[in-house]
Structures are given as structure tokens and as C-alpha cells.
Design brief:
Elements: E1 11-13, H1 20-32, E2 43-51, E3 56-60, H2 73-84, E4 90-99, E5 102-103, H3 112-125, E6 130-133, E7 139-142
Parallel strand pairs: 4-6
Antiparallel strand pairs: 1-7, 2-3, 2-4, 4-5, 6-7
Helix pairs in contact: 2-3
Bound molecules: tetrahydrodeoxyuridine.
Length: 160
């Protein structure tokens, strides 16, 4: 039996460490928290995707009285980007969370289903998708979505 390790790398930084392009994207994600529909959780999540041609596609979490029918901000955003711009890779995805009137101090951590959708987007376009998780005190930057999901499930895994 062999023990194996998976190592993941991310950067932890402050607002001033971000490029203007990154700051613009995070601002859009923050703004989108105000358009979230979350009457059940009162947890507002906003996301913004920067496409390779400079287009920004945004989204927010959309809840439903039938709880599982709702969708997270990340998937709302990536599905909209992929549906409307199927030939354009997503370069960067920024995410921000707000609750009880304030943005979270720490970055919100995307759920497993959103991570799986992120890696499919990345894999589909064969381009690393940077992920920026915003927190008031600290911001995390992942070079690629796959760094957020070791052992993700890929199309190759459907083969025998
Ligand atoms: N949520 C997101 O939008 N993204 C995540 O990665 C985690 C959770 C939403 C789903 C639900 O509307 C609310 O936050 C509370 O779970």
C-alpha cells in the first residue's frame, strides 16, 4: 500500500495586489450579490466571468421554494457564458459572497458541484481558468479551477 499526496497551490492576497482587470471583475461579482435571489438562505453570492475576448458575463445565486431546484452563482454564470459564447474560453471567474448586509470577511468556498462545472469549462476550452475568491480581509487566487478540485471527474473518466 502506498500513501500519495495531492498538493494544491493558491495565492492569498489583498485588494491592492490585484491587477486592474482582476479588480474590475471582482467589482462585478460584488455588484451581482445585490441581484441574487436568496429569500431562503439570505446568503447572496455573485460571480463574474471574464472571457478571452474581454466580454464579462455575470450571475448570482437563484433559489427556489423547491430548494434543490435553485442554482449557485458560479453555475448560473458559467452556464450563461458557455450557452451564449460557446466558442470563447473563460479566462477568469470571480466570486463574492454577502450575508447580513456585509461581504464575508473570508472568501466563500465554491460547492463541489460548482467546482465540477468549473473544471468542465476549463477542460472544454483547454485553457486554465483562474478563480478569484473575494473576502473583505483576504482574497484567494487559484491559477486554475482544477486546483480547487483534486480528483475531478473528466470526460476521459467515461471511458472503460
Ligand atoms: N451558493 C452559491 O451560490 N455558491 C456556492 O458556491 C455556495 C453556495 C448559494 C446556494 C444557496 O443559494 C446559498 O448560497 C446558500 O447555500
Amino acid at each position: 500500500m502506498k500513501t500519495q499526496d495531492i498538493h494544491t497551490t493558491f495565492q492569498s492576497c489583498q485588494w491592492d495586489d490585484l491587477t486592474v482587470e482582476q479588480q474590475t471583475l471582482v467589482e462585478r461579482a460584488k455588484q451581482m450579490t445585490f441581484q441574487s435571489y436568496c429569500p431562503y438562505s439570505h446568503f447572496n453570492v455573485g460571480a463574474a466571468a471574464l472571457l478571452a475576448d474581454g466580454t464579462i458575463v455575470t450571475g448570482s445565486n437563484q433559489e427556489n421554494a423547491a430548494y434543490p431546484s435553485g442554482l449557485c452563482a458560479e453555475r448560473t454564470t458559467l452556464f450563461a457564458a458557455n450557452a451564449n459564447h460557446p466558442d470563447t474560453p473563460v479566462k477568469t471567474l470571480a466570486i463574492a459572497c454577502r450575508t447580513r448586509g456585509s461581504f464575508t470577511q473570508r472568501p466563500g468556498s465554491p460547492c463541489g458541484s460548482c467546482r465540477q462545472v468549473m473544471i468542465e469549462t476549463e477542460h472544454r476550452y483547454r485553457l486554465p481558468m483562474e478563480v478569484i475568491l473575494y473576502g473583505e480581509q483576504e482574497i484567494y487566487i487559484f491559477r486554475a479551477a482544477a486546483d480547487l478540485l483534486p480528483f475531478g471527474f473528466f470526460s476521459e473518466d467515461l471511458q472503460a
